[in-house]
Design brief:
The complex is a heterodimer of chains A (about 140) and B (about 140).
Chain A (H helix, E strand, L loop, with lengths): L1 H18 L5 H8 L8 H20 L21 H17 L3 H7 L5 H24 L1
Helix pairs in contact in A: 1-5, 5-6
Chain B lengths: L8 H22 L5 H6 L8 H23 L11 H18 L4 H10 L3 H23 L4
Classes of the chains: A mainly alpha (about 140), B mainly alpha (about 140).
């Protein structure tokens, strides 16, 4: 049941980013283009996603533990530091340049465009590079 | 080339709700944040343990869900890369570094993090949305555009 739940969660995510059009960089960049060919669809995606999660999490967290694990694994970090802000700013820059954020980019692989493969490979390289740099400074 | 895209509030709302259901289900079942950064990043390892399996299962489901949706409810021919292949690669590299340093992206911070009122996620989401909008302002309307 645990395996099936995780597979279904993944499938819902993949269906959501595809149906909403987030797998299309043109659409995402048009959302960011407030003063041009603005396409407000992404506001509806984020609002609906947030509302469902907000309500769903409230229900889930009334339980002591998840259905198939011994505890909830929530990020413990609570400091807002330069690394968080710098990382988020870099992510925003890369998102604004390409039109892809990680989830939709991975989902878009199934549509076979070569740019999707380039993006995901470059993103993996960037993740490993950052991880390596953090290890060296730690 | 920039092409206007059709405003699709219903597909957007239903798609967003599905992403939310994914987040709720993964938390209810496995107690985990449904963040693409953490899940995909978790596959970049040589340790094939329980957490690798969980992340791999999610990605397999994600690809299947995207493919199934593409069959009936999404026209893949509309996918276009206005920035071109080279800038898509540059963007991918920067996204990879950024989400690793910032510990999350649109799903982990923007949906899951804000839904549990994490101050880090609220700040991160405001920063990446603002920088993304500014970036497009410069590339589409700035000097030389």
């Amino acid at each position: 049941m645990r395996t099936i739940s995780i597979l279904i969660a993944g499938a819902l995510f993949g269906a959501g980013v595809t149906l909403s059009g987030m797998v299309n960089p043109m659409k995402v960049l048009n959302f960011m283009d407030l003063f041009g060919v603005f396409d407000p669809t992404l506001i509806f995606v984020m609002t609906a996603g947030l509302l469902v999660t907000l309500i769903g999490y409230r229900l889930v967290f009334t339980r002591e533990k998840p259905l198939f694990d011994t505890s909830f694994h929530l990020p413990a970090k609570d400091i807002i530091d330069a690394r968080l802000i710098g990382g988020a700013a870099l992510f925003g820059l890369g998102w604004g340049l390409s039109g892809f954020c990680p989830g939709p980019a991975i989902a878009s692989l199934v549509f076979g465009q070569v740019e999707s493969f380039f993006f995901v490979a470059a993103m993996a390289a960037g993740m490993l590079a950052a991880r390596f740099a953090l290890l060296r400074t730690a | 080339m920039i092409i206007a895209t059709e405003f699709t509030p219903w597909a957007g709302t239903i798609g967003g709700a599905l992403i939310g259901l994914s987040a709720v289900l993964l938390m209810a079942a496995a107690g985990r944040i449904a963040g693409a950064t953490g899940i995909f990043g978790g596959l970049l390892t040589t340790r094939f343990d329980e957490s690798f399996t969980r992340n791999a299962l999610f990605i397999v489901g994600l690809l299947a869900g995207a493919a199934a949706t593409g069959l009936f409810w999404f026209d893949e021919k509309q996918i276009a890369f206005p920035s071109g292949a080279a800038m898509t690669v540059v963007g991918g590299l920067i996204v990879g570094v950024g989400v690793s340093l910032g510990n999350g992206c649109t799903s982990g911070h923007g949906i899951c993090g804000i839904a549990r009122f994490s101050p880090r996620s609220v700040v991160a989401t405001c920063v990446f949305m603002a920088v993304a909008i500014l970036t497009v302002l410069v590339t589409r309307h700035g000097i030389g555009a």
